[in-house]
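Researcher: I'm comparing several assemblies side by side, and this is the next one on my list. It has 496 residues spread over two chains. Same procedure as the others: predict the full complex and return the structure.
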Amino acid sequence: MKLIKKQIPFAIVFVFGMLTLVSYYVPHPKSVAFLDTVSQWENIVSSFAFLLGLFSLFYTHYAKIKKKGDGWGYSLFVFVGFLAVVVPAIVSHGRQMSGSEMTPLGWSFRYIYNTLLATMFAVLAFYIVSTAYRSFRIKSVQAMVLFVAALILILGRVPIGEILWGKALGWTGHSLSGLMNWIVDVPSVAGKRGIMIGIAVGAVVTSLKIVFGIERQYLGKD
Amino acid sequence: MLKKTLELLFNIDRRWLFLLLALSIFIPIVRPLGLPNKNISADVRHVYEKMNSLPPGSFILLSLDYDPSTRPELHPQAMALVRQAFERNLRVGVVTFIPGSTGLIDEVFSTLSKQYNKVYGKDYVIFPYEPNIVAVLTQMASNLYGIYDKDKYGNEAASLPVMKGITNYKDMGLVVDVTGTSSIDIWVQYAGDKYNVPLAAGVTAISQPSYGPYLQTGQLKGLIGGMKGAADYETLLNAPGKGTSGIDALNLAHILVVVLIVFSNLGLFLVKYL
């Protein structure tokens, strides 16, 4: 049992991990061909992951409906939403337009998917405004610095900001876009670059730990 | 008296603020203010100039990875890029790694292909959605037909006139990733850096500052950021679209946020010391 659950998966990870790593740096036709094949496999496996996710989603919501758990009515919409997209997709053979005519899939995309996603994202704007009014409290020097930087960036992103700045603070000789660019190009980039380097080093270490079998959590508990 | 009024204002029903925001967005859409967009971002200009420097017939690859949630910012960017490509007679290939973007891609090309008399298969091609971006970008480095053997409509991709002479990144004049995700990092790592592919991008305003390091090192040739970026691009093209018309609403909504923050902090200060 240990052979199937632990040793074979570890051997697969080690062999493919090492080969892929080496192939990245070796531009030999064989390593290129290997990378091509592995990429195709990876793409196919990713597609199966969708199927697995779908079954898992359906099972969870089906169980909730069966038990009539909290908010079970919302779970019904998982199935309604699924059918509202998948049935038109099958009927329309995956095409959203047929000549200049909109197919059922096109209709479902434009009037269900498009509308729902756009609405969900648009609602965020209202929360941001409400939060801006209630939560952006300047209680310390750090909060003040954050506010000034945010103010410059918010105003710098829109033409009216430059107009207002010109009228109020044009006498300083500094333009709003100049200040905004400095914030973005110097302190912001410095911070972001530090984060990127940290993430990259962390990713390399984690990958090596997985390839060499030091990190084995992905194999499961037993 | 003032203290009481301020305290009352702090307990205002949030729906009044929602109404204010809704008005600040709706009014300029119904009655545009027409404020001039004079400050064109240098990063946007670089994308525009890079596209303009390509000789007619060059192949550009657009990775359009956005869905309706980021449509207001990214769709005008995609429209402007395709418009410029068609105006300059560039060949356009489109890939996507977001399933929700397929309908938006259709919308871009069904509108602009008619306007510029462009023919599918000859002037542009749309490849189907693929789920794994890393695998696809790795594969495209050697032979893109290994992944995209067929186009979105099931035609043999290699036999399409638009794909003549195109095998991998080396044959492409420019790759532009218009995205609401973090796919730019992957494009930089797996295509731009390794194969020296000229890469540019279009992103939402909120993620724009994150890409400063790539711009400074030249890993990105240019960047279009948010609706302002789209408006800048439309200004450069002299073709006002949704980016330009949305900028007024953006103006007022941004000002409203700033005013609310300043007002609430001033109020808090007064309440504390009155």
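Model: For your comparison table: Residues 2-31+250-273 of chain B form one domain.
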